[in-house]
């Protein structure tokens, strides 16, 4: 008996967002509505559309705060990629149009939302290639001679951000990979990537993606399941991933975060989870959820705190991976000290001539007001490489946890724990299971501590604690404090340090912050101290007072003061001044101290 089924009605495939009939027709379950650009009276944001390419058809919707038109201000640029399962939605859809209006208004930036090709009219990889073409089109405005005047006039191309949700989050990853591998024109800097509830392989939707991409390479296609080598080359400094508790894509977002952390990528990654919410909830009521991103507290140059508790650092977030320096022969690597807390360190080893050559050991604590910077920052990577080469020392740079997410005194506790870990290598105390560089090359009869700014404060704390409590036979030869921070009881400090250290009943009487009043100061656990100050440093007087008090309080060691004329705070690690004559002089002074 012949079948009476109409071939036009016979379904061959059915997925979350569409079904496919035997005759090749595709029926989408969700319709896409579009609205024109406009001036939004609620947010006072202007929008307009621009054509990127006619063949293939690619366009963008641009957004700009109305108030910027009467100024010459340059604003950060957000390049946004909409979601929709690679098959529906649009940059011109009401939800995305309204979302971009809200973001552009609240964040005061230029927005570019890309309209890329969708399945089935343009199968994957059109979405990736179109978005990349649109980003290149945006980048072509960097010299101020592009076709779109808003970008020429108002976009700061040193502050470019890429973001996307769901499928757009997935596309954002591929763009970041291409930026890292291929690059963008000189003058373009992709600072960060944000993924809202991104799609990656590992869900029931994988076969839908494979169907939409006829040229796929299977379940391990790197666009669906990111390759670790690609993750390690992402072309941005920071990456923020949002997941939602009730979202079916939550697990793959978390997996991406974990894989990125393990990849060796040198940037900063953060995961934020919204409890009680589901997939792309922020698009349904952007004004409501953007209220959570309202800045409620701001400490200029350091960080902002949003209504939802998120901390956004304003500087000191750049990181670089460890590397071998061909010029000096100094090698570096990262080690984990405590997996539970994430306490780690970056080690630097000078050029060696034998497998067991011994060098003095320097334990270093980076600066950054207890809340920014890291052992992996470019500034400290450069400085430690130069210092290791100049002084011929092994350096262990401690990456303690930062406030305000980890309030003081956590940084002190981390730093003491890290120093104990270092000292446990004395005489093979870890039975050969510790770090090979420390076991083979560290001379534990020549141990030094050092730090700059807040790190100098921490270095003092660890040295004093070692003097009071002891370290199982290990002695500290010297302590070098460069532009040290000690509490000065100013109004700004009361607010700022008080926020970082909420458990301290009295900041001025806290011996960690103000060791100048510590009755145990004479027990400082080292033989020599070098205090370095700078003429134009706002912390100069605090360092000088520390020197004078230590000289008078009965401590029996050798004390030296060195002042740099004409320079300001931590100029020696600032990228603009780290190679000037005075910075090199200070480097040699510290290196000479580490004899």
UniProtKB/TrEMBL annotation:
Signal peptide: none
Gene3D superfamilies: alpha/beta hydrolase (3.40.50.1820)
Keyword line: Hydrolase
Domain Alpha/beta hydrolase fold-3: 78-282, 362-572
One Pfam family it belongs to: Abhydrolase_3
InterPro entries named among the record's database cross-references: AB_hydrolase_3 (IPR013094), AB_hydrolase_fold (IPR029058), Carboxylest/Gibb_receptor (IPR050466)
Superkingdom assignment: Eukaryota
One Gene Ontology term of the molecular function aspect: hydrolase activity
PANTHER family: ARYLACETAMIDE DEACETYLASE, CARBOXYLESTERASE 12-RELATED
Homology family: Belongs to the 'GDXG' lipolytic enzyme family.
Name this polypeptide is given: Alpha/beta hydrolase fold-3
Organism name: Dillenia turbinata
């Amino acid at each position: 008996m012949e079948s009476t089924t109409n071939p036009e009605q016979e379904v061959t495939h059915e997925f979350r967002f569409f079904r496919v009939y035997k005759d090749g027709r595709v029926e989408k379950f969700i319709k896409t509505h579009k609205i024109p650009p406009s001036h939004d009276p609620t947010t006072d944001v202007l929008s307009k559309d621009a054509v990127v390419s006619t063949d293939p058809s690619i366009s963008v919707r641009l957004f700009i705060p109305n108030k910027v038109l009467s100024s010459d201000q340059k604003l950060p640029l957000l390049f946004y990629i909409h979601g929709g399962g690679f098959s529906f939605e649009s940059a011109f859809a009401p939800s995305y149009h309204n979302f971009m209006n809200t973001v552009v208004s609240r964040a005061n930036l230029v927005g570019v939302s890309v309209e890329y090709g969708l399945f089935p009219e343009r199968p994957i990889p059109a979405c990736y290639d179109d978005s990349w073409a649109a980003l290149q089109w945006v980048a072509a405005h960097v010299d101020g001679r592009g076709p779109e005047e808003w970008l020429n006039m108002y976009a700061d191309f040193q502050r470019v951000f890429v973001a996307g949700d769901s499928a757009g989050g997935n596309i954002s990853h591929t763009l970041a990979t291409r930026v890292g591998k291929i690059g963008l024109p000189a003058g373009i800097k992709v600072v960060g990537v944000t993924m809202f509830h991104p799609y990656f392989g590992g869900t029931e939707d994988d076969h839908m993606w494979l169907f939409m991409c006829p040229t796929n390479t299977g379940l391990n296609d790197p666009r669906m399941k990111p390759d670790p080598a690609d993750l390690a080359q992402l072309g941005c400094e920071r990456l923020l991933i949002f997941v939602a508790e009730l979202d079916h894509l939550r697990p793959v977002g978390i997996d991406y975060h974990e894989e990125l952390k393990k990849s060796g990528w040198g940037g900063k990654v953060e995961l934020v989870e919204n409890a009680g919410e589901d997939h792309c909830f922020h698009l349904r009521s952007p004004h409501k959820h953007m209220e959570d991103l309202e800045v409620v507290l701001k400490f200029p140059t350091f960080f902002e705190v949003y209504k939802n508790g998120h901390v956004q650092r304003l500087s000191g977030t750049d990181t670089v991976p460890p590397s071998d320096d061909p010029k000096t022969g100094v090698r570096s690597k990262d080690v984990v000290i405590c997996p539970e807390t994430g306490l780690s360190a970056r080690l630097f080893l000078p050029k060696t001539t034998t497998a067991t050559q011994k060098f003095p050991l320097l334990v270093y604590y980076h600066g950054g007001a207890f809340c920014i910077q890291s052992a992996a920052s470019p500034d400290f990577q450069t400085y430690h490489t130069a210092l290791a080469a100049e002084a011929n020392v092994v350096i262990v740079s401690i990456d303690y946890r930062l406030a305000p997410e980890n309030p003081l005194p956590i940084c002190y506790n981390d730093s003491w724990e890290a120093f104990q870990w270092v000292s446990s290598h004395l005489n093979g105390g870890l039975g050969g299971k510790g770090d090979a560089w420390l076991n083979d090359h560290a001379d534990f009869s020549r141990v030094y501590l050092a730090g700059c700014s807040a790190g100098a404060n921490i270095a003092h704390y660890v040295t004093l604690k070692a003097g009071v409590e002891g370290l199982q036979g290990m002695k500290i030869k010297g302590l070098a404090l460069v532009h040290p921070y000690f509490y000065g009881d100013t109004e700004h400090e009361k607010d700022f340090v008080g926020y970082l250290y909420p458990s301290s009943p009295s900041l001025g009487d806290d011996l960690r912050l103000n060791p100048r009043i510590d009755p145990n100061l004479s027990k400082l656990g080292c033989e020599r101290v070098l205090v370095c100050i700078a003429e134009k440093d706002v912390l100069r007087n605090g360092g000088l007072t520390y020197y004078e008090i230590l000289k008078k309080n009965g401590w029996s060691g050798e004390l030296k003061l060195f002042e740099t004329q004409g320079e300001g705070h931590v100029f020696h690690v600032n990228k603009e001044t780290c190679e000037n004559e005075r910075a090199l002089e200070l480097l040699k002074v510290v290196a000479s101290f580490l004899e």
